[in-house]
Amino acid sequence: MSTTSPAGAVGRPLPRTEGEAKVAGHAPYAYEQPVRDPVYLHPVLSTVARGRVVAVETAEAQERPGVRVVLTHENAERLARTGDREFAVLQEPVIAFRGQIVAAVVAETPEEARYAASLVRVQERAEEHDVVLTQGHPRLYRPGEEAAPGADSEQGEPDAELERAEVVLDRTYRTPMEHNNPMEPHTSIALWEDSGQGHLTLYDSTQGPHTVRETLSGVFGLDPGQVRVVSPHVGGGFGSKGSPHAHNVLAVVAARALPGHGVKFALTRQQTFSLVGHRSPTIQRLRLGADRDGRLRAVVHDSEEHTSTVKEFAEQSAVCSRTMYAAPHRRSTHRLTALDVPIPFWMRAPGECPGMYASESAMDELAHELDMDPIELRERNEPERDPQSGRPWSDRSLLRCLREGAERFGWHGRDRRPRARREGDWWVGTGVAAAFYPHVVIPGSQARIEYASGCYTLRIGAADIGTGARTVLGQIAADALEVPVERVRVEIGDSSLPQASVAGGSSGTSSWGSAVVAAARAFTEEHGAAPGEGARAAATTPEETVAEDHAVYSFGAHFAEAWVNDDTGEVRVPRMYGLFSVGRVINPRTVRSQLIGGMVMGLSMALHEHSVVDERRGLVVNQDLAQYHVAANADVAGVQAEWLEQSDTRATPMGSRGAGEIGIVGTAAAVANAAHHATGVRVRELPLTPDRFLVETGP
Amino acid sequence: MEATITLHVDGYRRELTVDTRTTLLDALRDRLGEYSPKKGCDHGQCGACTVLADGRRILSCLALAVAQDGAHVTTAAGLAQGGGGPHRVTRAFLEHDAYQCGYCTPGQICSAVGALSELEAGMPSHATDHPDAPVRTTDAEIRERMSGNLCRCGAYPAIVAAVREAAQ
Ligand code: FES
Ligand code: FES
To answer: Which of A106, A254, A267, A282 could be joined to A271 by an S-S link, Cβ 3.0–4.6 Å?
Structure first.
């Protein structure tokens, strides 16, 4: 393809196609779609963490003016498929976590729906619950293949090697429960039309319209042709919108009870804390065995996490240790315990993000132990091939990222000793951490290109959750068709468009883009450079997109400068720098924003984020944005992201790899390492709140 | 209970009858179909619903519609289509890619316009050296004054750059 031609669209920092609509606020998100006869849904949630619904009194709510229906487990429709218990909404009087949907009101105004919901009396019988993940929890088990393929892995004799190693580091790191909190809370409008077989339209805030269509048609026993899911604009998701959740099912149940009405259901911020997923807390034990010169002999990474009793989900935190560094002996394990908590799910870089916090902290500790520069330690442990698969690397640029990043950040000449630099009341330090993210291409996406009146229309049911997908796919299509980008129109965000995989796992541009390139090739082959009116072609993401015989990953290096206040323990991070290897960058403007956005979220994880669970009541007590802190503007100062100019055609025909998640991987470790360098205090539990630094430090 | 009120939204006079429990945000969105201000939390904790009411930035989710009777409300939609083209803040946001998903953006832009007039009027903030010292438009001032507007996409560095440029 012609993506390397300097005149092409790929590689240019084009502004977002929908930019003007977004800055005006005109780009319609799910809730903002025009519908006939809207009605409003407000749910009633359980207030015990485990138990049963004994009775639901709805009379008072029902009598309110404007109330159209009150739904409970007694009158809600029986669903066709409830094998996935997350979707078994209002099917039985069982309570599996606090904040579960136990009833709902639909009314003519949102105020009335909300008020009437407060009048529904749900009598609950509480049973004993357990919501706290403890180390070595008595009910830990090895997760199933579906939740965690290859939950355990082992090479060589890690235990024996740990015994033998000259230097052994044995540390436990903890990350708390965290919530995605996209700024647009999850929202649906469901419209059921009764005529014929019936037809469902769902305007939904989702990362994958086709995923939602497929799931919901199964749950309701509908033909996928009876369901259309529309989501032209999505206000962020960070994983939490990567699958439908219980609220989608509830909206559809309500819509089917009120045919012809658009049932509008916007979760409140508080409700999102129990209904749309979260990151499980992790307790990770890292054991590193090394020679005196810093060569790793053994790496053992054991992660304990929680899941829900409703559905299994494993945060695969230890996977990173299978790939990052050379060591002849290694083991990684995952253990879950099913607690009476809401269902955990994807949150930006699930697995890699908490895992690399632990592993990159441990590497820093080992470097400190050996009195070695942490970059040098990583240089000594650079694997020639992927330790897990034995395959050669497609493009392992970790050392380049570390070395060139060090140059640009100003790492050299750093005094390794902690607590060596003080500015006024502040201890100042710098830290480094590596980043990696697997390259994922999901097969099965389809792109269709049609030519009319001088314009090429590209259609694919992809989702733009803020990534720039709409813009970037146009750039890819333009170059593959060898036409100016101004002549390409892109339609996405609708399940009536050709099938597209979910916007998740940093796979979007890679998966959809590969289909777009294939479609463009098919188009050119069939119609040449001067297509006739109405010419069209379609193609699917080729199975062999990613070179099978290579290990394909993105890499990066994070550098951070931390200031820790001597009196208060407050941590400030005035400077962060990330250098990444993500293959070819299709749009420098949107990719820079994504990488910086990931780093900012990583900083937020490092310093603020913590869903605090009340063990007696089973709820997250800080379930709003005043108490669940996410980084605000003043928390973020100099954040810079750059990348190596590269192209990896083993990854995709565009030469690109994913960039959505790598920005958050390793960031928290870089900050924690910098805070240690500043103060000499090693905090092994996130977030790095001030109290953790107000301890006596040794000499 | 219901009440009939008048709002001037982006230059248009709108009369509407609202439940007295209705917030300005819900009146704009659910009653008038003005979806430019967004709902991120409904509790005054995120800034997504920021609009200018009689020139000052307010959180429309914390304002009751009835209490705003007669107010001139400017949303980001109004700022984007001013007589002389889009507002300089709007343009700067586009130029700097100061957004990703765009959901916090209309609130950010209204807030920035409000913050710049507060700066111009010499109103001090937590980032000002001394309450009596002249207020200068530094990055620290911008960050501080824009901290009521959360952006989960993490566009803050670009937002600061955009506001800085618009201030010049
Ligand atoms: S919606 Fe008003 S501050 Fe969040
Ligand atoms: S642009 Fe997505 S929250 Fe700010």
So the answer is: A267
Query: Is the CB of B59 inside a 6 Å radius of any atom of ligand 1?
Result: yes
User: Would A369 be classed as within a structural domain?
Assistant: no
Tell me which chain B residues have a C-beta less than 8 angstroms from the C-beta of A181. Answer: 152
Closest CA to B69 of B145, B10, B148, B8: B8
Cβ neighbours of residue A422 under 8 Å, at least 6 residues apart? A428, A566
Asked if B10 is an interface residue toward chain A (Cβ–Cβ < 8 A), one would say no
Q: What is the residue-averaged pLDDT of chain B?
A: 96
What is the spatial distance between Cα A615 and Cα A49, in angstroms, rounded to a whole number? 10
The yes-or-no answer on residue A661 being catalytic is: yes
The structural domains of chain B, with segments of one domain joined by +, span 2-78, 88-167
Q: Which listed CATH number (3.40.190.10, 1.10.150.120, 3.40.1400.10, 3.40.50.170) goes with B88-167?
A: 1.10.150.120
What's the topology of domain B2-78?
Ubiquitin-like (UB roll) (3.10.20)
Task: Tell which of A540, A566, A599 closes a domain.
Answer: A540
Chain A, chain B: beta-carbon pairs less than 8 Å apart? 192
Tally the domains of chain A.
3
The DSSP element (H or E) to which A458 belongs, if any, is strand A455-459
A280: Cβ contacts below 8 Å, ≥ 6 apart = A133, A177, A305, A306, A307, A313, A315, A344
Write out residues in chain A with pLDDT < 50, as ranges.
1-5, 698-699
Nearest residue CA, atom 3 of ligand 2? Answer: B151
Q: In this model, does residue B163 exceed pLDDT 50?
A: yes
The mean pLDDT of B130-151, rounded to a whole number, is 94
List of chain A residues whose C-beta atoms are within 8 Å of the C-beta of residue B33: 34
| Ligand 1, pocket-test mutation among B22, B43, B58, most atoms within 8 A of CB | B43
Q: Please report the ipTM that was assigned to this predicted complex.
A: 0.97
Range of the domain at A226: 33-128+181-275
- What is residue A697's predicted lDDT score, i.e. its pLDDT? 56
B125–chain A Cβ distance below 8 A for any pair: no
Domain endpoint, select from A508, A540, A572: A540
Q: Atom 3 (ligand 1): residue with closest C-alpha? A: B44
Amino acid (one-letter) located at A668: A
- pLDDT tens digits along A14-50: 999 999 999 999 999 999 999 989 999 999 999 999 9
In chain B, which residue's Cα lies nearest the Cα of A574? Answer: B140
**Which residues in chain B touch residue A34, judged by CB atoms under 8 angstroms apart?**
33
Total count of residues recorded for chain A: 699
